[in-house]
Amino acid sequence: MTSPIGVEGEGTPVVADGEPQPPAKTEVERLVGRSPGQLMWIRFKRDRTGVISACVVLFFFLIGLLAPVISKLYGKDPYTVYADERPELFDSAGVPVQPNGGISGEFWFGLEPGNGYDVFTKLLYGIRTSLMISVAVTLATVLTGILLGVTAGYLGGKADYWISRVIDFLLAFPAQLFFIASMPVVVSLFVSPRDETPVYVRVVALILVQWFLGWMSLGRVLRGTTLALREREFIEAAKVSGAPPGRIIRKEILPNVVTPILVQGTYMLPNFVTAEAGLSFLGVGIVEPTPDWGQMFAKASTELVMQNDITYMFFPGISMIVFIVAFNLLGDSVRDAFDPKTAR
Fold this sequence. Notes:
Distance between the termini: 53 Å
Largest sheet: 2 strands, antiparallel
Structural class: mainly alpha
Strand order of the largest sheet: 1-2
C-alpha cells in the first residue's frame, strides 16, 4: 500500500493517484527573468504601508482633479460669500450662528467666519491649487536636476567644475528667507505695484521661486551617480563602439539613475507642498479669493476664527498632516522597493 503522498525519482512529489507533479517553484525561480521594474513592483506590493500610503496620496490627487465635479454635485462653490447671500446664518460679528462653525447637512464642513465661504469646497479647491503648484515645481526641479547633474557627472572637466560651483553657491542661500523676500520682487517683474496681481502671475512666481532653489540636491545626487556610472564597462563599450554622448546618456546613463530620481521626487513634492502653504500663510503666495491650503491656515490663525470657531483649523490641518505623512511613507516604501538591502 502506497502512502497518499510519496517521493519518486529525485524529489518529484507523487499524489495519491500515482501521477507525478512538478515541484513547487522556489522564490528565486519565480523571480528569474524579471526586469528591475517588475522586481521593484513585486517588492512594493508586499509593503502594506506603502500600498496604503499610495492609495491615500492617489485619493488626494483625485479629489484635487475632480474638485469642480464634486463641487457641482455638492451644489456649492468656494467663491460664494454666504455672509452676504444668507446673512441669517451669521451673527453681527460674522460668525456662523450654528455651533461648530455651522456644520450641518447643508454645509458639511461648516462656513468660514467673516466672508462665509463654504469650507468643504474651499478645502477641495485649496488642495487642488497647492498640489498643482507643487507638481509643477517638482517636475521643473527634477528636469533641471537631471539636465545639470547628469551633464556635470558625464562630461566632467570644466562643465563639472562650474555646475558644481553653482550648486554650492545656491545651497548657501537660506531657502525660506529667500522665498519670502523674493516673491514680491518676482511678482513686481510681471505686474505694476499699482495694479492688482492676477492669480496666474502669483502661481508662476511661486513656481519660479521654489524651482530656483529646489533642484540642487537632486542635481548633486545625480552628478555623483553619473560619475560612478561613466567608469563602468558598459559605458566604455558604448564609447568604443562609436556611440555619441547624447545616445550614451539617453540609453545607458538615464535608465540607471531612475531610482534616485523617483526616490528624491517622492521626498521633494511634500516639501514643496509645505513650502507653498507656508508662503500663502505669510501672505506672499496665493491670496483670497483663490482657495489655497496655506491660506486656510492663515485664516484659521486670525483672532476672529481662533476665538469663535476652533473647528475651522481641524479640516485643513488634518488633511495636510495625513497627506504629508502618507507621501513620506510612500517615499520610504519606494526607496525600500528599489533597494531591498535598505533597512527602514
